[in-house]
């Protein structure tokens, strides 16, 4: 169910039940935080021999921008660490822009749709044949909410309007702040055109040469990866969320406003460097899958329910056993709290989502629980 307050889809009931025990092998929890915040049911680690969490969202950065944000971010930081610890064997963070959580590694395990790579290959051929591959200037595409970099972009363009007088910026996006973004651009007398959002693979974007993305709330920006795959020059902030793109010669990162102006003007006057086959592969889902298998440390594990032989030193309390007992006690506490409707609502759960309703049970083929 979609939570308007959190702008996230939260589970209803125990979604682990949708997988039968005989098929429970490796679970990949995309967004493990909000899949486990209000989880009430069988523990993920008990059902699956291996549970890998993939952290996509910089929740703390978003929360900090709200009222009493720093207090909320402090609380959320500890909750995120708690739930990912008790429910995941390992956590993959797409970039260092996300918070550090127990047993986590940093690796971008996402790729782009093959169509963007094919667009880039066509542009590569045009450049190699000394044809003009790009006929348009600069653009940005992203959900039109202030936190997606629009605040920073309008500030930079307004403050350096004289130096960037030749820049004609075009924005594409839909969202709750679209009208405000457009009104602000007009009020500041910026040479900006604002259009509704559309698919980034649309032919309207093929001929843009420069993609400008000042956002620092993303974890790994999908549209930046897509723009690079299409052979464009990218101007973005020198920020942990963009570390993966540093290896790409068409990605230019700025640390200061002066650098932003310099890099933007330079990009408008030069042609992109054609991507090598190796770098093009790095953006693909094939490469992303290879990275995932490597960092997830996926290997044959002992089936659920099969226990290792008992040690003759069964009375010895090892640090590992103590840690395991503490983790199980912590998981038991979370399970208890998450089963109380009042407590769930206090911590922000959608009311009446402890169990699926009649319609959801019908769709899943489950019996409605009393």
Note the main attributes of this structure.
Rossmann fold, single chain, 370 residues, glycosyltransferase, alpha/beta
* Rg from Cα: 24 Å
* Spatial separation of the terminal alpha carbons: 21 Å
- Low-confidence segments, given as residue ranges, are 310-315
- Helix proportion: 25-40%
Number of strands: 12
How are the strands of the biggest sheet laid out side by side? 9-8-7-10-11-12
Write down the CATH class of the largest domain: Alpha Beta
Overall number of domains: 2
H/E element string? EEEHHEHHEEHEHEHEEHEEHHHHHH
Largest sheet: 6 strands, parallel
Instruction: State the CATH topology of the largest domain.
Output: Rossmann fold
Round the mean pLDDT to the nearest integer and report it. 90
- Structure class: alpha/beta
Shape: globular
* Annotated CATH homologous superfamily of the largest domain: Glycogen Phosphorylase B
CATH-derived architecture of the largest domain: 3-Layer(aba) Sandwich
Q: Helix count, per DSSP?
A: 14
SS strand fraction: 5-15%
Q: Would you kindly provide a written description of the structure presented here, covering whatever features stand out?
A:
By secondary structure, this protein is α/β, with parallel strands linked by helices. The protein is built from 14 helices and twelve strands. The strands form three sheets. It has a six-stranded parallel sheet, with helices on both faces. Strands 3-4-5-6 form a four-stranded parallel sheet, sandwiched between helices. The chain has a two-stranded antiparallel ribbon with strand order 1-2. β1 and β2 form a beta hairpin. The longest helix has 20 residues. The protein is globular. About 2% of the residues have low confidence.
């Amino acid at each position: 169910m979609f939570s308007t307050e959190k702008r996230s889809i939260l589970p209803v009931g125990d979604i682990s039940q949708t997988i039968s025990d005989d098929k429970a092998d490796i679970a990949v929890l995309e967004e493990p935080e909000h899949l486990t915040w209000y989880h009430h049911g069988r523990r993920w680690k008990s059902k699956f021999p291996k549970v890998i969490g993939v952290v996509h969202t910089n929740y703390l950065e978003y929360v900090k921008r709200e009222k009493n944000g720093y207090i909320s971010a402090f609380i959320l930081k500890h909750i995120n660490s708690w739930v990912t610890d008790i429910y995941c064997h390992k956590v993959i963070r797409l970039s260092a822009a996300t918070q550090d959580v127990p047993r986590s590694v940093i690796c971008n395990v996402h790729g782009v749709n093959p169509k963007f790579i094919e667009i880039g290959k066509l542009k590569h051929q045009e450049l190699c044949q000394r044809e003009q591959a790009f006929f348009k200037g600069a653009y940005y595409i992203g959900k039109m909410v202030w936190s997606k970099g629009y605040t920073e972009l309008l500030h930079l363009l307004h403050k350096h309007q004289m130096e960037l007088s030749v820049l004609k910026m075009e924005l594409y996006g839909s969202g709750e702040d679209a009208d405000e973004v457009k009104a602000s651009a007009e009020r500041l007398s910026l040479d900006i055109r604002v259009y509704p959002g559309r698919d980034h693979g649309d032919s309207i974007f093929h001929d843009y040469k420069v993609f400008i993305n000042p956002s620092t709330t993303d974890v790994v920006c999908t549209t930046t990866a897509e723009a690079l795959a299409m052979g464009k020059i990218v101007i973005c902030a020198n920020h942990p969320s963009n570390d993966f793109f540093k290896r790409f010669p068409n990605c230019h990162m700025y640390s200061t406003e002066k650098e932003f102006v310099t890099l933007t003007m330079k990009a408008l006057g030069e042609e992109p460097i054609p991507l090598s086959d190796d770098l093009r592969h790095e953006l693909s889902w094939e490469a992303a899958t290879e990275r995932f298998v490597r960092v997830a440390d996926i290997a044959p594990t002992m089936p659920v329910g099969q226990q290792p032989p008992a040690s003759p030193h069964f009375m010895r309390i090892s640090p590992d056993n103590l840690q395991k007992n503490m983790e199980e006690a912590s998981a038991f506490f979370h399970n208890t709290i998450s089963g109380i409707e009042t407590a769930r609502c206090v911590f922000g759960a959608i009311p009446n989502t402890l169990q699926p309703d009649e319609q959801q049970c019908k769709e899943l083929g489950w019996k409605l629980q009393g």
